[in-house]
């Protein structure tokens, strides 16, 4: 598990970055650029490329690695575990995050995905048919608990620093919002128990649409309600404070809804997801920070002119990590070359608050 002492020592060993590159996370610090592991074919060749890229990033100043059990059919988690073990870095200096919610395949794509899900999860009782949405998604407490254990095995770790309930808005395809909130609360209780047992440091919610769309959108979930459910869950298991610590959502030059859409009720009226999270004490980890590579080719000239960086990818990363309340911007890092480019983004200053606001004027 990442510790205060080890993460601050890691920061001191990598003092060549621009201001605010390292940011507070709990009582420690993490880099404001993180490694993402979503994209890529489920092949041995891609595994090797990911492993080398992650080791390069960890040894160069980036100490956040994000994955999920379903990414590349569990291969990404396994590679992350190998890289954390192989890198010349203290495990306690690295924040490892993963997710559960999508039913994962194992190693490759089965010829009959439906039959795989039935035989491995439904027929074994790990998933109730009523909890399975779109044939691939479940956030029931027992299922997430099982997935958490599998993630620990895949990663080869005793603890996870941050565990997300993955895209809970998927459940809205067949359930009411109240039913989804109820299931989240039950799953939060299980995660609070794992935190109390020492298996888990913090948990969160990773979304694609839920927190950045208007309140009348079919995929909307209320951040205030999610926070309240986490508080109730913590109280139910006897924890004095909730271990809900973070949210993850897309944010980039082309997808700025988390900053511009005021859909969450704050003390003084509706707030954007970023502002509500900031005032609620939640860390924000941005996904799609370079829009799955699209912004590596080009970003709008009027925005690029305000940003520092040698490449479009670096300028896009620096836009994402300039947003208020953002702790870390995650970037897909499938090669050593990309790892070095992404790390080097942190050598440039991010936008200040006034300069960031000016982008939207």
TrEMBL record:
Cited Pfam families: Aldo_ket_red (PF00248)
Ranges of residues in domain NADP-dependent oxidoreductase: 34-210
GO terms assigned for molecular function: oxidoreductase activity
InterPro entries reported in the protein's UniProt record: AKR, NAD(P)_OxRdtase_dom_sf, NADP_OxRdtase_dom
Gene3D superfamilies for this protein: NADP-dependent oxidoreductase domain
Entry-linked SUPFAM superfamilies: NAD(P)-linked oxidoreductase
Xref: CDD domains: AKR_unchar (cd19099)
Any one of the GO CC terms: cytosol
Coiled coil: none
Protein name: Aldo/keto reductase
Source organism per UniProt: Haloarcula salina
């Amino acid at each position: 598990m990442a510790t205060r002492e080890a993460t601050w020592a890691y920061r001191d060993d990598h003092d060549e970055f621009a201001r605010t590159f390292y940011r507070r996370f709990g009582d420690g610090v993490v880099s404001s650029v993180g490694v993402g592991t979503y994209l890529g074919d489920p092949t041995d060749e891609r595994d090797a490329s990911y492993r080398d890229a992650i080791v390069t990033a960890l040894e160069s100043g980036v100490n956040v690695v994000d994955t999920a059990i379903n990414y590349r059919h569990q291969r990404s988690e396994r590679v992350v575990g190998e890289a954390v073990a192989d890198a010349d870095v203290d495990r306690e200096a690295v924040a490892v995050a993963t997710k559960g919610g999508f039913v994962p395949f194992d190693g490759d794509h089965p010829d009959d995905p439906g039959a795989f899900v039935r035989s491995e999860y439904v027929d074994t009782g790990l998933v109730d048919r009523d909890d399975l949405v779109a044939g691939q998604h479940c956030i029931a407490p027992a299922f997430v608990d099982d997935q958490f254990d599998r993630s620990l095995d895949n990663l080869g770790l005793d603890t996870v620093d941050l565990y997300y309930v993955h895209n809970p808005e998927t459940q809205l395809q067949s359930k009411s919002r109240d039913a989804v909130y109820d299931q989240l609360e039950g799953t939060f209780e299980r995660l609070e128990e794992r935190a109390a047992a020492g298996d888990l440091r913090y948990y969160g919610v990773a979304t694609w649409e839920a927190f950045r769309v208007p309140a009348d959108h079919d995929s909307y979930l209320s951040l205030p309600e999610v926070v309240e459910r986490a508080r109730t869950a913590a109280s139910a298991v006897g924890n004095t404070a909730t271990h809900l610590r973070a949210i993850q959502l897309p944010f980039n030059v082309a997808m700025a809804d988390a900053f511009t859409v005021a859909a969450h009720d704050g003390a003084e009226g509706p707030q954007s997801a970023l502002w509500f999270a900031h005032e609620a004490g939640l860390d924000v980890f941005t996904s799609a920070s370079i829009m799955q590579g699209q912004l590596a080719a080009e970003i709008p000239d009027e925005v690029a002119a305000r940003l520092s960086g040698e490449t479009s990818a670096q300028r896009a990363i620096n836009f994402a990590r300039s947003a208020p309340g953002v702790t870390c911007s995650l970037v897909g890092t499938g090669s050593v070359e990309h790892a070095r480019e992404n790390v080097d983004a942190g050598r440039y200053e991010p936008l200040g608050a006034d300069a960031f606001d000016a982008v939207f004027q």
